[in-house]
């Protein structure tokens, strides 16, 4: 038995060595690990649930209910990350009255790990965003916004690496082109770079240099633009890049009943997900890891 | 096997079991946030003082409406639309004049931008949020008289009560063609530059309004339409908007 076990491991390792993927991060043999990714996008200051008389979303949403759900999932699996894909601000009087303070404080109480920046997060200007940063106990990532010449410099990182149960997770952020969407007076000297080129760099850094087991793109560039299919979107991004496992999107308020599976530039599967807006849904993706197990050509089985 | 061999084996095993993990299975779904979930009490308690403050403020009474006003009250001009366009003029012209020493010639908003009725009774800050939930703000655009004529053409074809301020008098004939158009009582001069206040949505081509481009200047006032309404409401104990003759079509 022992010998057989050894042979299996040995074969797997050979395959892995062949593709150059030896890492010392994960270190509990023969145990399946599970990483749960929870996500929201475009919550737009919707703190209270919609009222019973709302024409479209009656009795839906609400941060306090989301907190209950997140808490129960964290109890079930402590190796859970909670992410937000931007447009945290703007949409209810809470934002007009408190400028985003309450949104950030509540997200901190829910123990969000990472968020990216949406166009509406500039609605009180970049100074208005900066003023709320002290209330956020989570981190901001954006790889294609260069904040060097703004007050947000050093407060937004291109990516964040989190290790859970020995699994190394790299999360990078992408934002939408601000010119034409946000007044220049608001975003000031924020410089926008092409998301696809940046994503190619980021996935190389995270996968090859940092040897991440999981690469997640937290995007606010929009799901897909049917009337201008060449416009950069999560779908075009998924197809044009490699080594991204999951794209969590926002901006287009797209209600996906389940994640979309796209093929990347080398024919491997990428998951793209977005959960509409206003905190009506929580997205949940569970990744199961087998240490050293040989991966088939088709990759992991995906159940959506 | 010698001790050496066993040690080598152990080393190999160690290396192999440290090999990077591979994703074997992925499950994805979305979970509805609805009333089947109990609210987290700590979060509720934290929100409460903020909610009470916002509601108290939102419900504070700032004016009174003697009637109910709706954007469907008239064919080409309505009391509520006239109120909004005139409020934009009276609240933003002082700001524009102070910055530029110029005056706004007229205001043009869009019918679809009136998002709610004004109900008879007390008017609160919440009323302004209902009428204008969006964050659009006022811009002033300098355009030529020729484009003013394009605007009149647009208004004649749109056949909707797009709100205009009182400085404009637009009369359509029985066939809905422009019969006369005056600003401050004078016909539109194609060589003159007009300063038109509108919202940033229309300036950017919303509702098919293409006549703001090209232009001779854009002045961004950073004054939200909603704040215009709130500031205007606060100045009047009782609103008294009227449908009038500023934009009409002659009948047979």
Automatic annotation (TrEMBL), chain A:
It comes from Winogradskyella thalassocola. The keyword Hydrolase applies. GO terms for biological process: nucleotide catabolic process. NCBIfam families: TAT_signal_seq. SUPFAM superfamilies: Metallo-dependent phosphatases (SSF56300). Residues 36-254 form the Calcineurin-like phosphoesterase domain. Keywords: Hydrolase, Nucleotide-binding. Belongs to the 5'-nucleotidase family. CDD domains: MPP_UshA_N_like. One of its GO terms (cellular component) is outer membrane-bounded periplasmic space. Pfam families: Metallophos (PF00149). One of its GO terms (molecular function) is hydrolase activity, acting on ester bonds. This is 5'-nucleotidase.
TrEMBL record, chain B:
GO terms for molecular function: hydrolase activity. Pfam families: 5_nucleotid_C. InterPro entries: 5'-Nucleotdase_C, 5'-Nucleotdase_C_sf, 5_nucleotidase/apyrase. Residues 75-212 form the 5'-Nucleotidase C-terminal domain. One of its GO terms (cellular component) is outer membrane-bounded periplasmic space. GO terms for biological process: nucleotide catabolic process. The keyword Transferase does not apply. Residues 1-21 form the signal peptide. Gene3D superfamilies: 5'-Nucleotidase, C-terminal domain (3.90.780.10). It comes from the Bacteria. Keywords: Signal. The keyword Signal applies. This is 5'-nucleotidase, C-terminal domain. It comes from Winogradskyella thalassocola. The lineage of its organism: Bacteria, Pseudomonadati, Bacteroidota, Flavobacteriia, Flavobacteriales.
């Amino acid at each position: 038995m022992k010998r057989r076990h050894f042979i299996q491991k040995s074969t797997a390792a050979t395959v892995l060595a062949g593709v150059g993927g030896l890492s010392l991060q994960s270190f509990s043999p023969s145990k399946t690990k599970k990483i749960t990714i929870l996500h929201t996008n475009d919550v737009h200051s919707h703190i209270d649930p919609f009222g019973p008389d709302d024409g479209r979303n009656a009795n839906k949403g609400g941060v306090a209910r989301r907190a209950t759900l997140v808490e129960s999932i964290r109890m079930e699996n402590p190796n859970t990350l909670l992410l937000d894909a931007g447009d945290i601000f703007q949409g209810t009087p809470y934002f007009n009255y408190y400028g985003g303070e309450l949104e950030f404080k509540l997200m901190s109480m829910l123990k969000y790990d990472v968020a990216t920046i949406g166009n509406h997060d500039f609605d009180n200007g970049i100074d208005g965003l900066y003023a709320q940063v002290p209330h956020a106990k989570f981190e901001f990532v954006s790889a294609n916004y260069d904040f060097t010449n703004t007050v947000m410099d050093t407060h937004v990182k291109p990516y964040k690496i989190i290790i859970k149960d020995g699994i190394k997770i790299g999360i990078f952020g992408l934002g939408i082109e601000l010119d034409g969407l946000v007044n220049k007076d608001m975003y000031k000297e924020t410089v926008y770079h092409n998301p696809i080129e940046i994503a190619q760099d980021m996935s190389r850094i995270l996968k090859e240099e940092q040897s991440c087991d999981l690469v997640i793109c937290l995007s606010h560039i929009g799901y897909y633009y049917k009337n201008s299919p060449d416009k950069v979107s999560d779908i075009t991004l998924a197809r044009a890049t490699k080594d991204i496992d999951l794209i969590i999107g926002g901006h287009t308020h797209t209600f996906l009943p389940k994640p979309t599976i796209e093929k990347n530039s080398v024919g491997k599967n990428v998951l793209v997900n977005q959960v509409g807006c206003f905190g009506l849904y929580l997205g949940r993706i569970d990744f199961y890891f087998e240490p050293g197990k040989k991966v088939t050509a088709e990759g992991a089985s995906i159940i959506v | 096997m010698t001790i050496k061999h066993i040690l080598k084996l152990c080393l190999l095993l160690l290396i192999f079991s440290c090999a990077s993990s591979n994703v074997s299975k992925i499950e994805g779904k979305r979970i509805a946030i609805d009333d089947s979930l109990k609210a987290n009490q700590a979060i509720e308690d934290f929100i409460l003082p903020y909610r009470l403050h916002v509601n108290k403020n939102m419900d504070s009474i700032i004016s009174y409406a003697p009637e109910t006003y709706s954007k469907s009250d008239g064919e080409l001009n309505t009391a509520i639309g006239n109120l909004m366009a005139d409020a934009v003029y009276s609240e933003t012209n002082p700001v524009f004049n102070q910055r530029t020493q110029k005056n706004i010639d007229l205001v043009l908003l869009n019918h679809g931008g009136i998002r709610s009725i004004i109900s008879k009774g007390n008017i609160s800050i919440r009323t302004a949020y209902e009428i204008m939930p969006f964050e659009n703000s006022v811009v002033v655009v300098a355009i030529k008289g020729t484009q003013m004529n394009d605007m009149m053409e647009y208004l004649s074809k749109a056949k909707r009560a797009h709100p205009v301020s009182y400085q404009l008098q637009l009369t359509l004939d029985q066939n809905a063609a422009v019969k006369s158009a005056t600003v401050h009582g004078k016909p539109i001069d194609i060589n003159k530059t007009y300063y038109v206040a509108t919202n940033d949505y229309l300036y950017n081509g919303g509702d098919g309004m293409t006549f703001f481009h090209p232009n001779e200047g854009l002045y961004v006032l950073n004054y939200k339409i909603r704040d215009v309404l709130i500031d205007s409401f606060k100045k009047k104990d009782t609103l008294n908007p009227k449908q009038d003759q500023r934009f009409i079509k002659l009948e047979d």
